[in-house]
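Standup notes
- DV: blocked on the single-chain target, sequence here:
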Amino acid sequence: MTDIGLTSELTAPLPPSGQIPLIGFGTWQLRGDEARQAVSWALEAGYRHIDTATGYGNEQQVGAALADSGVPRDQVFVTTKLPPDHVGRERRTLRESLDNLGVDYLDLWLIHWPPNGTPGEDSWKVFVEAQGEGLVRNIGVSNYSLDQIDTLTNATGVTPAVNQIKWSPFLFDRSLLDASRKRGVVVEGYSPFRAAKLDHPELTQIAEKYGKTVPQVIMRWHVQRGIVVIPKSAQRERIESNIDIFDFELSADELNAVDHLTEA
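- DV (later): unblocked, structure below
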């Protein structure tokens, strides 16, 4: 894997011709006015990728922030997710998500978890249909194994464009990343800080070198590795800090060192 020269418009390709911003804003556990305010701050700070889910109970607040932001709809990549217990109600859930978010289409719709531990082929067929109708630009999954992804592909001929999973330098799995990319699946990481050791000496040393925070180093590592990352915060200062990563670049040696923190 090679470094990626970053810009504020950095994206990863989605088949057949889409793009997903490598930096997104997560909204898990954000509710009510807090959710609306946090998303508003994120959009003001330059985030153009907002991640929510039916199960988060905040789609209306996310939609309100989008509407109030003044940012054109086609400039924000909007993701939401189908709860596993909504199998059989996919169409209704999609319509409710669109209404709550105040949008005509989703940029990405994910099956949030494998339904009852199964790949959910029937739900995936509905996802494929919704994509064909233009209600959803891209479709994918979350918390899936490669075998489960392969089952969906074999059942429909359509491979999930994204697999959103817990990811951080301390969960780095090169074989999983390479196998996902071989299938054309973009890895999208959530809980980048919760799943990390923010006081790890290797990270603190790199952060001190560049005058940055450890979370900023983690963010930079994700995007230089081409991994979508969706940090979450309810604090404006942290929301703004997490995306302030375009004034430094990790060297090849530093990237490799962060790759191997699980072995340290």
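- Follow-up: Residues 11-195+227-232 form a domain with the TIM Barrel fold (CATH 3.20.20.100).
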